[in-house]
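Practice problem: predict the structure.
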Amino acid sequence: MSAELQERLGHHFVRPELLDRALTHSTDAESRGEGLLSNERLEFIGDRVLGLCIAEWLAEHFPKEREGDLAKRLSMLVSADTLCKIAEDLGLGAALRMPARYRATGLMGPRNLLSDAFEAVLGAIYLDGGMAPARALVRRCFAGLIEADARPPTSPKNRLQEWTLGRGLGLPVYGLVQAIGPAHAPRFMVSVLAAGREAQGEGDSKRAAEQAAAAAWLKELNS
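Answer:
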């Protein structure tokens, strides 16, 4: 595996096969009949390592915040959008292995593909060197994001809910409009109805589509 990539990660693998596996998408492993040698199990580990690293850092950096505000920050920092951007900055997309036919059809598009790769790489680093190098990568990649917001972030769904409840209008109602695309790259269209007005949003997961719908509703409100 590329020494340049390991340099960007700040960790030189004792077991380079772990990094190799972290960058093997399931479509590539399955095409060779080696499904368990994809990055999915490492992603499972990396997701937990990331959550712990971010949680302990937030508790350290914001000692006077309540659990609810820390949870809002955590949710934003580990979102697919955030992880995708970090994966792009590290150059993981170019290193991710998959059959050429999938890359040619735009499989690199979905956010969760790159966000999963980052979590898998983090899991590989943890298994190879323990928590210290994993924590070091997280703190280097997320430093600007941790320090950027003085106030806890609020998602579009939460902002919309606060707006409607604050006016006695009840909770927004979300509904799936349609799901399109192949299994490896689905797209969801969701609608939200609030205060008698409807908006729609699209995403590569139902949650992302709901957030997009809420953001569209709020944008119309402020336009």
